[in-house]
Amino acid sequence: MKHARQTLADLLLAVDNASRAAARPLAARLLAVSKTRDADEIAGLADAGQRAFGENYVQEALPKIEALRGRGLEWHLIGHLQSNKADAAARVFDWVQSVDRPKLVAALAKHRPDALPPLNVLLQVNIDDETSKHGCAPDEVDALADAVAAEPRLRLRGLMAIPAPFADMARRREAFRAMRGLFDALQARHPGIDTLSMGMSEDFVPAIEEGATMVRVGSALFGARAEKK
Ligand SMILES: *Cc1c(COP(=O)(O)O)cnc(C)c1O
Questions:
Q1: Which residues carry this modification: N6-(pyridoxal phosphate)lysine (predicted)?
Q2: Which of 200, 208, 227 to mutate to test the pocket of ligand 1 (most atoms within 8 A of CB)?
Q3: What residues contact residue 73 under an 8 Å CB cut-off, 6+ apart?
Q4: What number does the ligand 1 atom closest to the CA of 225 have?
Q5: Is the pLDDT of residue 123 over 50?
Q6: For 49-80, how does the pLDDT look when each residue is reduced to its tens digit (9 = 90+)?
């Protein structure tokens, strides 16, 4: 297996090239998706310079965040969040990318500790509504965004999507393009937003071409995940 440092460098170069080819003013940000990886693997990537890590489950993330405290890492929750875990999530994460309902907005705002900066929030949009289970509908984005923006303990940063994994890349592009349209419309209402999170190991290049400012990459960085038992 390639050294983590080399894998990271290759991936950052690919992200950079795609951003440049799409004439983006800034390269897309790389979120390293560290679900199922242990704290040592994450530390290896952190030593190589990676700062932002994404986790799917609050319970799985807590011991890793604790073990790596003090290293200046930035933690993003990218998995579905149950309301009864909003308290823990609001205390330990820097970003929650999976906000998709008003109840969660209220719970995160209530539990974000005053000693921490406002929690960065992305609204997860269910852009291919037949296949994915979570995320708000596109026509719910405005009301949810206004609810986040009204909470001083939250900071609205943009949108996130997990389009259905169509084998046909043209169909994935349609979803990415639809997300870009939603993002631009939201930015007209909330000029402070800056993040459109979409694209994973298999499709981060087309995602960047269609407007992603953050890509979430797991297996292309850490190697294939073991099947869930
Ligand atoms: C697992 C996961 C990723 C990363 O997937 P890879 O194909 O391993 O790059 C990105 N986003 C979310 C929401 C995920 O659950």
A1: 35
A2: 200
A3: 42, 46, 51, 52, 53, 65
A4: 8
A5: yes
A6: 999 999 999 999 999 999 999 999 999 999 99
For the chain, state the CA radius of gyration. Answer: 17
Q: Does any ligand 1 atom lie closer than 6 A to the CB of residue 219?
A: yes
Q: What is the CATH number of domain 2-222?
A: 3.20.20.10
pTM of this prediction exceeds 0.70: yes
pLDDT for the residue numbered 94: 98
DSSP track, 50-100:
--EEEES-HHHHHHHHHHTTTS--EEEE-S---GGGHHHHHHH-SEEEEE-
Amino acid, single-letter form, for residue 192: G
- HSE, CB side, 13 Å, CA atoms: give it for residue 195: 23
Q: What is the pLDDT of residues 32-41, one digit of tens each?
A: 999 999 999 9
